[in-house]
From TrEMBL:
Pfam families membership: HTH_IclR (PF09339), IclR_C (PF01614)
Organism name: Streptomyces pacificus
Residue stretches making up the IclR-ED domain: 68-213
PROSITE patterns linked to this entry: HTH_ICLR, ICLR_ED
GO molecular function: DNA binding; DNA-binding transcription factor activity
Annotated keywords: DNA-binding, Transcription, Transcription regulation
UniProt xrefs under CDD domains: HTH_ARSR
Keyword DNA-binding: yes
Name of the protein in its database record: Helix-turn-helix domain-containing protein
Residues of the HTH iclR-type domain: 6-67
Any one GO biological process: negative regulation of DNA-templated transcription
């Protein structure tokens, strides 16, 4: 460190870089060891970063990068949407259902990109900016399953009637995208999701993950 630099700022930026390099978050103890500082310093750094939504901590206490990082650059969020839109359009047209990219924002699932099919007589209205708890709906549950390591390989989650009566959903988590925790899915007015939809959603999630790497 030179006289012109800030040790606290440097440590805060190192915390963000460490969290960005992991898909599963880090505990205070793990961050303490990697930074070479005591736990009290880490707690203070995390508390400050949380106030700016740059870091969030899950129910297990693991720290992760927060969506505030995306808000730092106004062009980042549109770029995420832009990268996802081709695969979402293809998915929506192929399945005939509303397709969406959903990211984690604190304890909620946040739809950041939505594409509705053009050829159907009716479909579920679903808008970018829609939020719901992570433990309700296919989008959030797919993320939780991936977070808890329940998915040995890319798979999908199905739900019915959890966010809207009569609507079913299918979603697959994004895998291998550093700093982004989310899922890709579809929502449709149906009592059950047709068999071919789940694998198709997994393919779209892979395509979007590749585009975001």
């Amino acid at each position: 460190m030179t006289a012109e630099t800030s040790q606290t700022l440097d440590r805060g930026l190192r915390v963000l870089k460490l969290l960005a390099d992991t898909d599963h978050g880090l505990t205070v103890t793990e961050l303490s060891h990697r930074l070479g500082v005591n736990r009290t310093v880490v707690y203070r750094l995390l508390a400050t970063l949380e106030q700016h939504a740059l870091v969030r901590r899950d129910v297990g206490g693991r720290a992760r990068v927060g969506l505030g990082v995306l808000r730092l650059g106004r062009q980042v969020h549109p770029l995420v949407r832009e990268a996802a839109l081709p695969a979402l359009r293809s998915l929506a047209e192929d399945i005939g259902a509303t397709a969406h990219l959903t990211l984690v924002d604190g304890t909620e699932a946040l739809a950041v990109a939505v594409v509705e099919p053009t050829w159907t007589d009716y479909h579920v209205a679903y808008r970018a900016g829609f939020r719901h708890p992570l433990d309700r709906g296919a989008a959030g549950k797919a993320i939780l399953a991936a977070r808890q390591g329940k998915l040995a390989e890319p798979s999908y989650t199905l739900t019915h009637g959890e966010l809207e009566a009569g609507a079913s959903g299918a979603a697959a988590a994004l895998v291998g995208v550093t700093g982004i925790e989310g899922s890709v899915g579809v929502v449709m007015l149906a009592d059950a999701v047709p068999e071919r939809v789940g694998p198709r959603v997994v393919d779209a999630a892979r395509e979007i993950a590749d585009a975001l790497r």
